[in-house]
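It would be a great kindness if you could assist me with a short task in structural biology. The full record is reproduced below for your convenience:
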Amino acid sequence: MNNKPTPKAPKTPKFNFYWIYGIIALFLLSFQFIGSSGAKNEISENKFFDEIAQSGDVKQLIIVRNQDLAEVYLTAEALESEEYQNISKNMFGMKNTGPHYEFTILSFENFQQKLDQLPNVRELNIKTTKRENWGFDLLSLFFPIIIIVIIWMFIMRRMNGGGGIGGGDQIFSIGKSKASLFDKDSTVNVTFKDVAGLAEAKEEVAEIVDFLKSPKKYTSLGGKIPKGALLVGPPGTGKTLLAKAMAGEAQVPFFSISGSDFVEMFVGVGASRVRDLFKQAREKAPCIIFIDEIDAIGRARGKSMMQGGNDERENTLNQLLVEMDGFASEKGVIIIAATNRPDVLDKALLRPGRFDRQIGIDAPGIKGREEIFKVHLKPIKTSDDIKPAHLAAQAPGFAGAEIANVCNEAALIAARKNKKQVEMEDFEEAVDRSIGGLERKSRLIAPAEKKIIAYHEAGHAIAGWFLDHADPLVKVTIIPRGIAALGYAQYLPKEDFLRTTEQLIDSICMTLGGRAAEELIFGKISTGAQNDLERITKLAYGMVTVYGMDPKVGNVSFNNFSDEYAFGKPYSEDTAKMIDDEVRKLIDEAYQRTLKLLEDKREELEIIAQRLLEKEVLFRHDLEELIGKRPQDVAKEQAALNETTTTPSEESSSENITLTEDNTEA
């Protein structure tokens, strides 16, 4: 059996439109070159009459009247002499046929007089002619056209991405789709194993891939394959990564394109690209089309500020709507789109029949972050004490992209320190860099300002430590980071889907802890609480105007009324004044409550501030050593201990449950 591979046929060179340009340029250069191939020498009129004309070596004199030019041809005998040896041959070494000399005629009257005075004027064989330079005329005619064509081709190439493949054909392919095709010949290394923390979303898209692999499994019961799925979630949560995993798992063609690739400056280009994309998809069905950042073309129609103009984006959206609902479901073309702004999308785009499913992808919880850390820690050489669960607790609220960045930054920090392994302190520094920015070691802070910062951050820590509904503290630091951060306190937010009024008020009090500590200790306040005041103002207005948590304003919500009430607010001036008064009252009461708490815990405040001035960074276990455990944690431990020591047969068990409920309500 012959196992020799069959030789591949030699690839024929592809035709390139620039060859035509090269041939035209070569022709023009050749014309100029051939036209000037003779070895002509410029001489003056006086030299001709004083020397050459008197020598008897002139065979012919041609006068070109329309060019004020005279051409001199020498005899064959003269060209063989040493005097004319330098012009006897042309640049190719061949015999020079002439003209051998030429000169400009300054005045035809003087020139005629000098000719008449020559004794051998009859032997000169003088001819007069007119000569048209048709090559120059053609060049002057077509040269501007050629320049315009070249500039147009350059503009078209830049608009189409400027790639070298395709060359001049791109002027005719501006309406073609720019989607990247991934099929069985393309290699996509991302699979569902590389996607962590998105169990529900991964299950949904895995089912879509299974639809295309075995459609009869679902259509045998009368069901139809869904036409589209929309991935919705904040930036960095893994929407595009999930689409890449689909491309790696699916054994069908996968078209990937961004929403901004459809829209160009020319009218009709976006709609043409949509048509071409779906035409290619139907030819390769079953397949998947992935449109990233679909809000670039999917915004609600009629919201444009440009009135009376032809909106190219709306034309593109209209064509997309027609194409999505215009092909039969048995064709097996499924649309997957991703966006982080579902609120701006057109309602016609979201209806069933176009996007049958909306898959929400939110920031992962602590277990999801642990799974994501496990994925990104695989290629990193870490020490034995690195635990993904501990890292997940140190990175509250982080999305998948931020976790990947933390792992990469930790590896770079360890390499910068010439370590063999990445240690826990490297990850902690990477988390700090991700939250607060780069450490500003060159920023010199005066001792007085550093003391204010220490008490400010200690105020946050104490308020959060003793408030019942505050988030648990993770870290507090006074190391300057980023552009404006002189210190910060990091908390581990509770993964609650609902927040009560008491929880939000405690959050406001905790945020006001820094400003209250400054006033309590120094009797004056600084500008360090700017970010804190912005956060509590937004939260307080949300409580009053959005969540209906103020008894005086009532159970009303004025959230997202800008679209319906574009030229005003849906409430009167009296209500607006009431809202402002209630927000101010809410913040003032929270501030006085925080001041009283810090006065009662002033000793603990001093301890934390002084230790911050010494160590600059304090963790949760440091605070437990300095001021004891949080009262909430002690109460939970005591409750758990009571549950373990109390048996179900005891008569007081029901009373204990009742007391616990009463305490919770209080």
Observations:
- The radius of gyration is 42 Å.
